[in-house]
């Protein structure tokens, strides 16, 4: 697995990231261990988690595996703060106190002294940007964090935060924005991608298979063992004509290349400008294996362009003005 620089920083991450959002909630510790070992054996280093995943259980499972299965020194560990969950309730709190408290809890859960990458999980409009960024700066200066980033930030928020950090010497620069990005969800290309390119942030796409829709498994119904079934979705969730057209185009490309839709969707995404490492939230070892196999495939230019065309996001005023 190749290593890629995260934006214009010195942090190198593997070409695929391993997401752990389902660990402790659909993926038990034994399956998680098998997934992590297989990821590591394939050359993977970048592992992403968050305190809000499975009510801290994701971090705890990962921490136990770091101690017993894969050495800490061979992983790039990333976590996030700013979202708290208690049962079905969700709070956003990116105040300085909440962020730094969450950081300390993450370090305890993971059993480590520092994180390679720490990100604000989502914007908090109730907290001033300088307070949020001040907490990130303190995390770096204290030695608890090596690099900092944001997640789910819009274009203007990304530009505001990155410019603020560059305005004064000594502030830690932002190196990443972790955002939803796939053939079915290209909205970040309007403003987020240009902002990241201009200011040196790497893009870390999550949900690169659009919650499994791009695998094609929902083309003829909802499998009983799928995430869609577990979440009680109906087929109306996948009935949009444009979405159906994109999924069919991916399936057609996969047939033509004698490979899987997973491979096509991930190979397309890896080649997008600014993308460092798509984060694959594999629930099972089989899903991870399919994702890793995509690394051996480079899409022919005509297929890349055809997928670009069928999934092209709408650009209007003012995004179209360059």
Overview of the molecule:
InterPro entries: AKR, AKR_Detox_Biosynth, NAD(P)_OxRdtase_dom_sf, NADP_OxRdtase_dom. This is Aldo/keto reductase. Residues 16-300 form the NADP-dependent oxidoreductase domain. Helices cover 39% and strands 16% of the residues. It has an 8-stranded parallel sheet, with helices on one face. The chain is an alpha/beta fold and 322 residues long. It has helices spanning 29-41, 57-68, 96-110, 129-141, 155-167, 192-199, 227-230, 241-257, 261-270, 285-293, 301-310, and strands at 3-5, 12-14, 17-19, 46-48, 76-81, 83-86, 89-92, 115-120, 145-151, 174-180, 202-206, 279-280.
Topology diagram in text:
Layout: E1 3-5, E2 12-14, E3 17-19, H1 29-41, E4 46-48, H2 57-68, E5 76-81, E6 83-86, E7 89-92, H3 96-110, E8 115-120, H4 129-141, E9 145-151, H5 155-167, E10 174-180, H6 192-199, E11 202-206, H7 227-230, H8 241-257, H9 261-270, E12 279-280, H10 285-293, H11 301-310
Parallel strand pairs: 3-4, 3-12, 4-5, 5-8, 8-9, 9-10, 10-11
Antiparallel strand pairs: 1-2, 6-7
């Amino acid at each position: 697995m190749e290593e890629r620089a995260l934006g214009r920083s010195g942090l190198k991450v593997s070409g695929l990231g391993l997401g752990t959002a389902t660990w402790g909630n659909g993926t038990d510790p034994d399956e998680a261990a098998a997934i992590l070992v297989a990821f590591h054996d394939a050359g993977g280093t970048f592992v992403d988690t968050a305190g809000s995943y499975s009510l801290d259980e994701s971090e705890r499972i990962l921490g136990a595996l770091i101690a017993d299965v894969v050495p800490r020194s061979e992983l790039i560990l990333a976590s996030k703060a700013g979202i708290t969950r208690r049962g079905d309730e969700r709070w956003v709190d990116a105040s300085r106190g909440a962020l730094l408290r969450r950081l300390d809890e993450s370090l305890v859960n993971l059993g480590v002294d520092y994180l390679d990458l720490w990100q604000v999980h989502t914007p908090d409009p109730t907290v001033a940007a300088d307070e949020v960024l001040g907490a990130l700066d303190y995390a770096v200066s204290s030695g608890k964090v090596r690099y900092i980033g944001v997640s789910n930030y819009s274009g203007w928020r990304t530009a505001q935060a990155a410019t603020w950090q560059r305005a004064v010497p000594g502030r830690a620069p932002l190196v990443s924005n972790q955002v939803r990005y796939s053939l079915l969800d290209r909205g970040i290309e309007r403003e987020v991608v240009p902002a990241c390119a201009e200011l040196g942030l790497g893009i870390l796409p999550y949900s690169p298979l659009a919650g499994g829709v791009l695998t094609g498994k929902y083309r003829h119904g909802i499998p009983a063992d799928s995430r869609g079934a577990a979440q009680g979705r109906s087929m109306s969730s996948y009935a949009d004509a444009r979405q159906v057209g994109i999924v069919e185009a991916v399936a057609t490309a996969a047939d033509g290349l004698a490979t899987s839709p997973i491979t096509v969707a991930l190979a397309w995404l890896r080649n997008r400008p600014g993308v460092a490492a798509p984060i694959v939230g594999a629930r099972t070892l089989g899903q991870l294996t399919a994702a890793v196999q995509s690394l051996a495939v480079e899409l022919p230019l005509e297929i890349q362009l055809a997928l670009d065309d069928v999934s092209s996001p709408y650009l209007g005023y003012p995004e179209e003005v360059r």
